[in-house]
Amino acid sequence: MTIPLIMVPAWKKCSKKFSRKIRKGTAIMKTAVMKTPMIQTLLEKSSRILLVSHVQPDGDAIGSLLGLGLSLHAKGKNIVMYNEDPVPASFAFLPGADLIVQDTGDIDSFDTLIVLDSGDAERMGKKAAKLKKIPAILNIDHHPSNTGFGTHNLIDTDAASTTVMIWRLLKEMHWDIPLDAAWGIYTGIFTDTGGFRFGNTNTEALNIAAEMTACGVHPETVATNILGSYSFSYISLLQKALASIRLCADGKLATMTLTRSMFEETGASEEEASGLVNYARYIRGVKMAVLVREKEEDADLPWKVSMRADKDIDASAIAVAHGGGGHRAAAGFSTALSPDAILDMLENQIQSQGI
User: Where does the record place the DHHA1 domain (predicted)?
Assistant: First the structure.
């Protein structure tokens, strides 16, 4: 794989090391600095590395693949960046996005697997069982529901994005960051903070985004591709989603419902449903917004529930109780309940949290 690289120096002025939690098996370690030498040794000794992120990838899943994958390639490592699903059109502009493949090739040829932004191993997709047989598994993630499934686990639930953790790791190993990788790191932060609007937009995230900008990333390009370019099918689906909005719990809960027929009528893809829930979240007075989407293929759990909540509600607690996961402010699960039953259940859940 030949990639032209523009190197970004490991700046001496980079921010202080931030305290964080890391899982090692069942133990909780206090700082990433303690774990970095072990991870660096693993990466440097690996002969062939497969990097994978969760199915139906978002900006952090794609950004973390590119942020770490392109940095490893710059160090001369033999790497493959894989995701079961194609790169969403809104992230196709990112340098290196065309190098993310949907076929791993011979899994037995890899001695190290790096799993990014995935709360559990099954989030890797249909090949999860085979991928888990790779000898060394480095699990890097920021989801509170992460199961610590790796042989090496780097988990920080306070990180704004997985790409923040990638940035920390690269700095602590004193590795230069290729400009192409910087685009991925910035994009992961941008998307997981909702364009710097969500509650996880902290000083660390802003400082890293500023550094990536100074290195050559163009924020306008990122924002335009992710937020400012829509297909007609997306607008048609949005129209139906907005028309489906229902308010309950005295206006504190807003729900949207998308059926398979809506996708068929508009020609919209599953990917284009991503982010629609935020329109309901922006309604004045709403504490939690929910998108209930009928899935394309799943007879047992036909409905996907995506939740966005403000600081007063723990969406991840609701998701975990129903077999899902995510973050306090953004979480989801799949269910066999009907949309009406889902609405009743969620209303009871947020009331049980004192809302």
Answer: 262-349
